[in-house]
Predict the structure.
Amino acid sequence: MKRADVNEAAPIIDRMLALLISFVPSKGPSGINVRTAVGDTRANARVLCTNDALGPSLDNCFVQARLAGVTWPQIEAVRLQVDGEPVTTLGGALVKNAGVRLCLATIAEIIAAATFVSRQDVDTTKATLLPPFQDAEEIAADEMDQATFQSLISLHGALTNHLVQTALPLPRMLQYQFYKVLPSLVMAYKLYDDASRCDELRAENKIVHPAFCPLQGEALSQ
């Protein structure tokens, strides 16, 4: 990259990785690899950009963050920040787009390994990720970057298919309504014929006191 490109790209990298590392515990072995990777990349961002060698180092930061347990909504927060970065140089645009695409790839890997408990969660995830993928695909198409466009399309398709297949065996969320205020134990027995699922009802409906549950709420269909 030229100096003007580096001057714009390096701060974008720094802000991106500063937010990424904020989701990792500041102490303990779980995040040591992330902190090392992020620290090295931030410290050498200008040199890496100048030598057009940023890719592997930046990718490693996201890989280590995923292995350390960073969640996909946290990676989505990083993507939103990077996507909002104003750029005027080619180098800045390249780093911005690379950051967005790494976020999407990391999100896909996290979701592929996730366990869902209700079809509603799967549908919400699918709907949330549709606009980011569509925006990234449109940018790649506008840039005439055929390889990246095809990769994004393939990743998006694979992720959508995975979510659809994951949702098929899962129960749906249904609305319920009782005629009077009941304890969660009684509600769980009436809904599931299993009073031990009262904790599930409390968590799903954010019930403050288990002895006085709201008349209306949501429950799994099975």
In short: DSSP finds ten helices and two strands in the chain.
